[in-house]
Amino acid sequence: MNDDPLMRRLKFRAWHRGTRESDYTVGGFFERYHETWNAEEIAWFERFMDEQDADIIGWALGTIPVPDEWKGPMMDKFLKLDFVKIEN
Question: What percent of the chain has pLDDT over 70?
Answer without folding.
Answer: 93
